[in-house]
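Teaching assistant here, posting this on the class forum so everyone can see the example we discussed in section. The complex has three components, and the goal was to see what a joint structure prediction looks like when all of them are supplied at once.
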Amino acid sequence: MTETGSAENQAAQPVAPGTVSETPAKKKGPRGKVTVFGTWCKGCGICVAFCPTGVLSLDENGHPYVEFAEKCSACHWCDTHCPDLAIIVEPIE
Amino acid sequence: MAHEEPINYYEYLRPNKKYPNVWCSGCGIGVVMGSLIRAIDRIGLDKNDVAVVSGIGCTGRMPVYMDFNTMHTTHGRALAFATGLKISRPKLHVIVVMGDGDAMAIGGNHFLHACRRNIDMTAIVVNNWIYGMTGGQYSPTTPLNARATTAPYGNVEQAMPICEVAAAAGASYVARTTVYHATEMDKFLEAAIRKHGFSVVETVSYCHTTFGRLNKRGGVVDMMRWLKDNSVGQIAAQKLDEEEKAAKIVRGVVCDVEKPEYLDLYQQVIDRAMEAK
Amino acid sequence: MDIRFIQGNDAIAWGALAAGCRFFGGYPITPSTEVAELMARELPRHGGKFIQMEDEIASLAAVIGASVGGLKSMTATSGPGFSLMQEHIGYAAMTEVPCVIVNVQRLGPSTGQPTAASQGDVMQARWGTHGDHPIIALCPYTVKQCFDLTVAAFNMSEKYRTPVILLTDEVIGHMREKFEMPDFATVERVERPHIPVPHEWYRPYGDTPSDVPPMANFGDGYRYHITGLFHDDKGYPTQRLDEVDPWIDRVHRKIERNLEDILLWDEDEVEDANTVVVTYGASVRSARHAVKLARAHRAKVGLIAIKTIWPFPVEAVERATAHARRVVVPEMNLGQLALEVERVVGRRKVTRVNIANGEMVTPQMILDAIEGK
């Protein structure tokens, strides 16, 4: 964690209970970053079919690609079911 | 249920081995390999102390991809090779991966005796109900009436209940799950490896290339979804009547008992022999 | 001086212990069970381990597994079990894992006569398992040789990373003779060489000047792969001819270039003999008597007792029979090693003396053949 982000640290101070926070709620971004390794992926379609939030879609060759990256909830369904270990999900803080 | 910090699978794969792996696109064996790697990673085993032994068949080709002490033995005999390896190097965590035919047909005798001896190792039986490598012949776990290249008019043999056989033969930890339930598989594999004694994990999978095609079960996604819709936990299974239950794959821990382990008992033999010297 | 009066089978077990054998996986079968029984008693005393497996297939599998784990390992069986072990003899040859398989031959085929002797597995010892593969088979004919050739079997199996078959028979196995048990410390042992290279550089099947790549044990930190498939120098499966052909050449060459160390035999007055008896195992005992009788009749008879029957000692037999007009080959089968002798000295010179009903070849049968009756 670099030191330069000190401004955000102040904004993230806990708000005392019962008071209304002035700062607007931050829109919840993706919690995971999905990467598909094309050379290892055989296009079986499991990850696309079972991703609970529809992050992945099939391209014209039937290979998965990340279409809606912001929807990823880092549930790890795809990387725990990929038969070729061709997909990884890195957590986003 | 996300991981604390993400596992790096590639630490556990052999860098100088050709990838992607040899299995058909979407094969469940790859899912079992990923789950095994996660279980080993979570326990934190030293790679030098892990040995993975396999027999012949699609599952047999798993160990070579992993950066452990790996042995691809003969059809049905993986457990016998592993028994000798474990006895000669007890510090090794020995994991034996087999298919349903490898473990229960030609390997059935060795399976019974490995369970009976309760030697400290883990057997993973990837059960996809068919001999996939040789193109779709029926196996001891092929369902009644299902089609196979050697059962063109329907299989007329009762399927072998792997977990019940293992528990009856004396294994001290037995569990069943499917490749759809990968997180549950991680849990069972971790418990099986940690268990001091012979443990069996049946991972029900599918073979869309042979069984799926011969029995019109659809493709990879259909067969994966079939596992989700046709398996049930042990608690839910109690609500089903016998007939309904027979049609389902019942997931869960079939047995988890404490029993004397073979090598501990043989150590007593060594102690007695030394006294008698 | 530790003088004993023991059976061949016992001497085999003691020889194994002296050679550093620390694992025995076996299954009861007449007439070799005594080897297993002695190992079950003695191995735990020598820091070793014994296991009785569920069948002979599992027995040799466990032996190979234990050898991969770092223990010198053996099994002992007889005909029916030896037949079951064939696939794994091939696996040990392909994966170059040292191990010793004792076959105390009994009358076959099939159940045959379990307590009767035979030498009917000679060709099985060479070609029992499928595919072209090198093999070493040693054949004792005294109780002392049961000890010495078992030690030699272990040392050769380690030195050349190959399965070695100790082919004996019920006669030698159950025969008692005086035997002086040596101090094990004086017995020469070949150990697996230390591997100097770091893990990433280790090639379990790499090309080496000796044709025998050093073998690391599982658990030593060399995390390599073993498979019965044709494999490259890292042990990974391959079908590439530029990797398969070199393997075939190397694995056969590692035996053929070391025949001087591997081939063992005894000779008795063959230099100017016009008749030479060529034999092995229990038949040597009858042959020695027959030769004595023949020499009493002033016949010029020589004897060569072969102790390494595979690879077949071609030059030794050629030299020993160079001046002989007749070569007599007695064996307890219908003619097996005789085929090799005929190949070397020519069919016309050879007189076979065969019996395959469980009885031994008698001295009289051999004498009649020597005298051309």
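For the discussion questions: Chain A touches chain B at residues 31-32, 39-46, 49-50, 74-76, 79-86, 88-91 (CB under 8 Å). The radius of gyration of chain A is 18 Å. Think about how each of these relates to the inputs above.
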